[in-house]
Amino acid sequence: MGLFDGTPLERPVTCAACGQALTQCACPKDADGRACPPSDQPARVRREKRRGKWVTVVTGLDPSASDLPALLKDAKGRCAAGGTATADGFEVQGNHRETLLAMLKDAGYPAKAAGG
């Protein structure tokens, strides 16, 4: 499937983000199949107090375009704490807002601190 299919001018359809043919494109895709790079996923990092203990919550990530299990593993390793993946982000036990902000910015996400 391509532009001008079956003619001498036939060209493969390319990805708008990377310029590769769609069959060779490795860009992260959202649920609709459109390219969704980390720079288009505004992450918010906030702290919550649950049962007297701090939990750092990261939201705003696309679950199909970002590799949430890999991000969570990296976050847990940097913070030396436990955590879990949620529908649109992840949670890490403890007050690690600044560490997670730096990690997400290094990964290319436009992360901002939210809440108090």
Stretches where pLDDT falls below 50 for ≥5 residues? none
State the share of residues found in helices, binned by percent: 10-25%
Taken as a percent bin, the fraction of beta residues is: 15-25%
**Which class of the largest domain in CATH terms?**
Alpha Beta
Number of strands: 7
What is the domain total for the residues? 2
Rg calc: 18 Å
* Adjacency order of strands in the biggest sheet: 5-6-4-3-7
The CATH topology assignment of the largest domain is: Translation Initiation Factor Eif1
> What's the helix-strand series?
EEEEHEEHE
Structural class: alpha+beta
- Give the end-to-end Cα distance, rounded to a whole number of Å: 51 Å
Q: What is the mean predicted local confidence, pLDDT?
A: 84
Instruction: Please give the largest β-sheet.
Output: 5 strands, mixed
Tally of helical segments: 2
